[in-house]
Specification:
Elements lengths: L8 H8 L5 H11 L3 H19 L9 H16 L9 H22 L9 H11 L16 H10 L30
Helix pairs in contact: 1-3
């Protein structure tokens, strides 16, 4: 078929079924006298129509629609059986795996490396400065305070007082910073 023939394509199907209006049929007949491709297409349409009409129409088996509707309802029930089923860890594991991997990459990119971490010399001053805001009770876990100094400190200080306010209350009179012991060092 050529480019002008494409306008007759829908008419060929209706002409094969004898449902084309008389004015359109006249135009198609005029075109068919000069176009071999459209004549062949019309003949093919009519042969397919005849072939389809000779075969009996097989209907769906008895109860087919009932089985299909029951299967659809069962699938919907299976997918939405209860809200508790949405907490199934197997579903969430695979769905959240890419999110967890992306978060791990972001954390790895943001976390400073050893080269960027503070040196050992700076940690002493940082620790001394950070102990100023600790409560007096932090001296209980410190290894640098003697028992007599600790007793004096506990008797003279209030429970919510800052440790920096009572550095001179130590028995030996020193103002050494109190370094609390971490639980993992005990």
């Amino acid at each position: 078929m050529t480019a002008p023939c494409t306008s007759f394509t829908s008419w060929l199907v209706r002409a094969a079924e004898d449902r084309l209006a008389p004015p359109e049929q006249a135009q198609l007949d005029a075109h068919l006298t000069s176009c071999d491709a459209c004549r062949q297409a019309l003949a093919d349409q009519r042969s397919v129509r005849t072939l389809l009409q000779t075969h009996p129409v097989d209907g769906a088996p008895l109860g087919f629609d009932t089985r299909v509707m029951a299967a659809i309802a069962a699938e919907a029930e299976r997918r939405h059986s209860s809200w508790f089923d949405s907490l199934d860890y197997r579903r969430w594991t695979w769905r959240l795996l890419p999110v967890a991997a992306a978060l791990a990459l972001v954390i790895a990119a943001v976390t400073p490396t050893d080269a960027a971490s503070p040196s050992v010399e700076n940690t002493g001053t940082t620790l001394a400065q950070s102990t100023d805001n600790l409560p007096v009770s932090a001296a209980l876990w410190s290894e640098s305070v003697s028992e007599s100094s600790l007793l004096s400190l506990m008797l003279s200080a209030g429970a919510d007082d800052a440790l920096a306010d009572h550095r001179t209350d130590l028995a030996d009179g020193s103002t050494t910073p109190i370094t609390p012991v971490r639980k993992d060092q005990q």
